[in-house]
Specification:
Pfam family, one: adh_short
Largest sheet: 7 strands, parallel
Strand content: 5-15%
Strand order of the largest sheet: 3-2-1-4-5-6-8
Number of strands: 9
InterPro entries: NAD(P)-bd_dom_sf (IPR036291), Sc_DH/Rdtase_CS (IPR020904), SDR_fam (IPR002347)
Order of helices and strands: HEHEHEHEHEHEEHEHHE
Function: Catalyzes the reduction of all-trans-retinal to all-trans-retinol in the presence of NADPH.
Distance between the termini: 88 Å
Number of helices: 9
Oligomer: single chain
GO molecular function: all-trans-retinol dehydrogenase (NADP+) activity
Protein name: Short-chain dehydrogenase/reductase 3
Shape: globular
Length: 323
């Protein structure tokens, strides 16, 4: 081997060693980061992050005329936020605003809006920007939950469910996300459901919509995270997975162990949601143990998982449906 060939071999070998060393260093750094964030997560179980102050924030709540939405609006108002209430039922929406104004010390606005109608969403959103200001906290809460066997759902009912439970998130975010991106500031909260984690009988279309919300929030967060590399992203995402909440949507609940799996009062659900938003939690179930329990159970053999489901025997009975 001549001297030139030997030099080439040495250069190639050194390059391979250098590349290998870089890979090892990158892997070690990755492992350090993983262990650090695992440790931080364990620490935060005992010492939670301090809750953000929401005084002066402009909070928009959809479905604010009743149930969880109403309780969210009242609670945010009590914390000093300006509250924008959206609902298709303007009468109950106005009642929510009237209750807020009785509390005093905070501003509240009621807007009638069909969130399934893109043109109406964009139009009402412009009014909000002009009359109130830029929304900084958005709570996508509005939803419907017809409960029938799959083959009993009409095409119109299924489309309406997707229009309200899924597509409304797209239209509302298209209206308000640009201003959040421009200011690199905001918080988006979406209500999925336990039915967005686990498939349930008599709720096939509803489960599909709530799985869609889960995917929508995860993908949108990742898109913004990737597009903001090089700067600190200050637009936060929180997805909520409630169990059965006593809002009137669960008309015929089936609960084998009420002491363990009782329906959640709307006020309790709203308090958990606001805590999650103020602590920047990405995902939270109501009750909180549900998401952890599901993660564990999903690693069991399928037949073992089905045995556990059958043992607890909780869900919703179909409502009477006449074609």
């Amino acid at each position: 081997m001549d001297q030139q060939a030997l030099g080439t071999v040495l250069q190639t070998t050194m390059a391979q060693v250098y590349t290998g060393a870089l890979v090892v260093a990158d892997v070690l750094l990755l492992l350090l980061k993983i262990f650090y964030f695992i440790g931080d997560a364990i620490y935060r179980l005992f010492v939670p992050t301090k809750e953000k102050d929401v005084t002066g924030e402009i909070v928009l709540v959809t479905g604010a005329g009743h149930g969880i939405g109403k309780e969210l609006a009242l609670k945010y108002a009590s914390l000093g936020a300006t509250v924008v209430c959206w609902d298709l039922n303007q009468e109950t929406n106005q009642e929510t605003v009237a209750e807020i104004k009785k509390m005093g010390g905070t501003a509240a606005y009621a807007y009638k809006c069909d969130v399934s109608n893109r043109e109406e969403v964009l139009k009402v959103a412009e009014r909000v920007k002009e009359e109130v200001g830029n929304v900084t906290i958005l709570i996508n809460n509005a939803g419907i939950m017809p409960c029938h066997a799959f083959l009993d759902h009409t095409p119109e009912e299924i489309r309406k469910m997707f229009d309200i439970n899924v597509l409304a998130h797209f239209w509302i975010l298209q209206a308000f996300l640009p201003s959040m991106i421009a200011r690199n500031y905001g918080h988006i909260v979406a209500l999925s459901s336990i039915a967005g984690i686990v498939g349930l009988a008599n709720l096939v279309p509803y489960c599909a919509t709530k799985f869609a919300v889960r995917g929508f929030m995860e993908a949108l967060h990742e898109e913004l995270r990737e597009s903001s590399k090089g700067k600190n992203l200050n637009i936060n995402f929180t997805t909520i997975y409630p169990y059965m909440v006593d809002t009137g949507l669960c008309k015929k609940p089936r609960i084998k162990f009420p002491s363990l799996l009782a329906m959640v009062p709307p006020k309790e659900a709203a308090n958990i949601i606001i805590t999650a938003q103020r602590r920047n939690w990405r995902n939270i179930s109501i009750p909180r143990y549900w998401s952890t329990l599901n993660a564990v159970l999903r690693n069991l053999p399928e037949k073992a998982l089905l045995c556990i489901k059958d043992f607890f025997d909780s869900g919703l009975e179909p409502t009477i449906y006449i074609h």
